[in-house]
Amino acid sequence: MKRRQAVAALAAVTTPGWWSAAAAASAAPGPVVAWPDVALLDGSRFGPAQAEGRALVVVFWSTTCPFCRRHNEHVEKLHRAAAGRRLAVLGVARDRDAAAVRRHAGERGYTFPITLDQAPLAAALSTRRIIPLTVSVDRGGRLLQVIPGEMFESDVLELLQLADKEVRT
Q1: Is residue 3 scored above 60 in pLDDT?
Q2: Which of 48, 150, 162, 168 is 20 to 30 A away from residue 90, measured at CA?
Q3: Distance between CA 94 and CA 72 in Å, rounded?
Q4: DSSP string covering the chain, please?
Q5: What pTM was estimated for this model as a whole?
Q6: What is the pLDDT of residues 66-102, one digit of tens each?
Q7: pLDDT of residue 15
Q8: 100 close to 63: Cβ distance less than 8 angstroms
Q9: Distance between CA 120 and CA 110 in Å, rounded?
């Protein structure tokens, strides 16, 4: 019976829909993230200055992952909804070919910033290799959640609330 309960508990936390921004907001903030400076596909940079004072949603993904494709559709909606708010979205492609990632992003209509500099971001946020992997950071720069797997659209869009949450120390 214990094994069945363990499997049910694991399914509950790995199934889309289990996570909520309310749960993240009520959790104690984690460590302050040491933001690396990374190159974006458009040639610009994303680093500590871009992260300061903003909540961040960072998504690790791959062009070959069907779960990532669905998940990133929701991430794109979040990115568009966050325009003018204190929340930034950053995609971290686990691919090596920048041209292929640019082509994929263009075909899919992704406008959120994307980097291939996965190693420094993984070191700063989470070394887990599962994709998609969504990481949330509060406006104070503290790690909130590392969310493995595909999420429902409503759960991804709920991350927008992080832009308005008071920073807890």
Answers
A1: no
A2: 168
A3: 14
A4: -HHHHHHHHHHHHHSTT---HHHHHHSPP-PBP-PPPEEBTTS-EESHHHHTTSEEEEEEE-TT-HHHHHHHHHHHHHHHHTTTSSEEEEEEE--S-HHHHHHHHHHHT--S-EE--HHHHHHHH-----SSEEEEE-TTSBEEEEEES---HHHHHHGGGGGTSPPP-
A5: 0.84
A6: 999 999 999 999 999 999 999 999 999 999 999 999 9
A7: 39
A8: yes
A9: 22
- Two tokens, residue 6: 């363990």
The Cα 126–Cα 119 span in angstroms is: 10
Question: Any idea which residue has 């980097």 for tokens?
Answer: 115
Nearest residue to 154 via CA among 23, 13, 17: 17
User: Which residues lie closer than 8 Å to 133 by C-beta, 6 or more apart?
Assistant: 59, 60, 61, 126, 146, 147, 148, 149
Interval 143-163: pLDDT, tens: 999 999 999 999 999 999 999
Question: Token match 């992704």: residue?
Answer: 110
Cα atoms found within 13 Å of the Cα of residue 144, Cβ hemisphere only: 28
